[in-house]
Amino acid sequence: MDLEADEFYAECLAQATMVIKQVRDDQFGMPTPDTEWSVRDLANHMLYELLWLPEILDGKTVKDVGTKYDGNLFADATELATRWETGAAKTEEMLAAVDLNATAHLSYADVPMEKYLREAGTDQLIHAWDLGQAVGVTVTFDPDIAHSIYDDMKDRGDEMQASGLFAPPKDVPADADIQTKLLALYGRSADTWREEQ
């Protein structure tokens, strides 16, 4: 199944939403697989990315939006869930009418909207897993989506490492399932994470 970029993003967003809604106040200080981020930091990043998405879909530039979403975006888990729900609803509404051939004005370049939605969806999906690991929520990727991301990224290891945004990939058996392979490509391992806690 080869999903259109808007459908792809919506599926990834659903996974992220499932985890965000289960975050509790007493978990905010807990560590996550994103070693420099606590649960609060990671949830704030995910909400930041979500709130930006309708702005980009609307054709706005980074300069247009400015510092609107900088800083802490929620005071507690209730506000996190509420702001997330509002942002997700607005995003889903705009996805229904998005032109995938339009241009997304990002901080590093102007790119096709389709490319932006796939990058943004992947970011939410991987971070949904990260957050789930931290707060004890199981995140199981849709195999078709996981295959799609893996096939797109597996030959871009040097590019990923050069960006400085990703941990080194982990070695996994050739017969590992697609979720394990995808997580390893992004430097993640459920077994390693559990051992470190």
Would you kindly provide a brief summary of this structure?
This protein has 197 residues and is mainly alpha-helical. The protein is built from nine helices and two strands, in the order ααααββααααα.
List the helices and strands and how they pair.
Elements: H1 5-20, H2 39-57, H3 62-65, H4 77-95, E1 103-105, E2 110-112, H5 113-135, H6 143-153, H7 157-163, H8 178-185, H9 190-196
Antiparallel strand pairs: 1-2
What can you see in these coordinates?
- By secondary structure, this protein is mainly α.
- It is built from 9 helices and 2 strands; from the N terminus they run ααααββααααα.
- Strands 1-2 form a two-stranded antiparallel sheet.
- β1 and β2 (110-112) form a beta hairpin.
- α1 (5-20) runs antiparallel to α4 and α2 (39-57) runs antiparallel to α5 (113-135).
- 28% of the residues are buried.
Largest sheet: 2 strands, antiparallel
How many β-strand stretches?
A: 2
Domain unit count: 2
Evaluate the radius of gyration: 16 Å
Per DSSP, the total helix count is: 9
The best one-word shape is globular
- Secondary structure class reads mainly alpha
Strand coverage percent: under 5%
- Low-pLDDT parts are none
CATH class annotation of the largest domain: Mainly Alpha
**CATH superfamily caption of the largest domain:** dinb family like domain
User: Could you estimate the helical fraction of the residues in percent?
Assistant: 55-70%
Distance between the termini: 37 Å
Helix and strand run: HHHHEEHHHHH
- Please state the second-level CATH architecture of the largest domain: Up-down Bundle
Mean pLDDT: 91
Question: The CATH topology of the largest domain is what?
Answer: Four Helix Bundle (Hemerythrin (Met), subunit A)
Question: Largest sheet, order of strands side by side?
Answer: 1-2
